[in-house]
Write the structure tokens for this entry.
Amino acid sequence: MKFILVWLLLLAYAVFFAPGSEGSDPVMDNVFAGNWTAIDPLVLTVFNSLGIFPLVFLTILLRNDRWKWPAWPFSLAAFAGGAFALLPWFAFGDRPAKRSLRTPRWILRILQSKIWLILLLIMIVGNLLTLLQGFSLTAYGDAFMESSLVSVMTVDWFILWWLSVEAINRFYPDVKNKGLAWMPIAGPVLVLLLDKQSS
């Protein structure tokens, strides 16, 4: 029930309440124009992280895809829809069902490998290096109020963070170092990397 409620609130926020200019979206215009230097590094880092989060969910969900609804369509849809795509699966798709793992063995081997997990961490750290260019919380706040893209993606980012912690708690309840899952994006990957039983 909580996932459906969050999903409905997210939809309502995106459609009715997200701040932003009524005309063209300044951040979206710069994204489509490839004008990255005009975007604050923190805005750019959050934007890029929304492309990394789905890889984290693919890793967690496909390693545990034994449930009533297949996880892979929702995980792939998260690349375009973020939490909008994942919340319905968390609400309904994880209902227990007696079946074997759906994920092909060769994909499972990749997702369970330390090399894959380390590669994810490298991507996460590489994205954070964008912040070394200098960033401004004030500039981010201005972008949040002026751009519906930034306002919605910010809320989406926080929900994805929460869902990643929920996923670790659900599928790996007894894993060591579970508290690391609260570290945004990298935390769930570190939990899997450091715990041998999660492989």
